[in-house]
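re: ur question from earlier - yeah i can do the single chain one, its not a big deal. heres the input i used so u can compare w yours
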Amino acid sequence: MAGLLCGTKKKKQVSDLHEEGKNAINAPLLPSSAELLPEDLLLEENAERSMLDPTSREDPKFKDLQKVLIDWINNELEEDRIIVKDLEEDLYDGQVLQKLFEKLSGRKLNVAEVTQSEIGQKQKLQTVLEAVNELLRPQGWTIEWGVDSIHSKNLVAIVYLLVALAMHYMAPIRLPEHVSVHVVVVKKKEGILQTAQVTKELTTTTEMMMGRFERDAFDTLLDHAPDKLNVVKTSLITFVNKHLNKLNLEVTELESQFADGVYLVLLMGLLEDYFVPLYNFYLTPESFEQKVHNVAFAFELMQDGGLKKPKARPEDVVNLNLKSTLRVLYNLFTNYKSAD
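and the output i got, formated as tokens:
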């Protein structure tokens, strides 16, 4: 009798599971590209789960945003010898997020360094996210992430968190504009799975995102006093030529002549009074990657000289972004204007 009852119960569970699956399949709002997973069918009443639409996962702008964030994390945590390759797989346990927040904030969190168990990982995430939320919530951020979403490798939640941190700490990166993704939300109500597609906006325009930052002199200059731009460019050209003329080099166009990084590297050597070995950079760069290498190397020399890391990305200078090039050169001008 006990065996019969057990068998009947199992059949009913299978039948219920099949019925829920059928309801989900017939749900009109479920995008055809999204697939329900077993854990969706076993949701508790009124519980919900979200998943990234596969078409959004392959969106080039979304992939570019992930790459920018990965490069930023790896650059920040270079001294810790941490290398992130995949946001979902490398950030879910809280270890990298802990190190990143400690580096950005200058705070040491009271958490175990290495945690293998799920409970330990979630406890670490709880501590890290509490510290992050205390920092960001007063600034008007909507908290779009949580312990469960991060630990379950919810890529949208992870990206939301990283974008917020990058913007708050004025990371020297350029986030791709207008990146949105479609998320499928599955919810169980009265035993029936209901689905809906929601659009999540991850980034807006550079101007709006920069609005959270303190705008610098060049933002104001380009927006409100473009007539004075030539005066600034003339001053910077005079400054760089004062030093580059020692190598019989001359600059007439700031954005184009510094775009390959060669003059930036040579200028740093002149300002700091040392010879830069030619094997450290490309004297006649041909590819985009070689130019980015040169500009990035020049940025390293600036930091070695005691300057703050430039806000601009090397890619922006290579892409002839005038504002980025002006920021870099003005930083040199303010620090070396009295140099012979």
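Residues 1-14, 17-33 have pLDDT under 50 and may be disordered. not sure if urs matches, ping me
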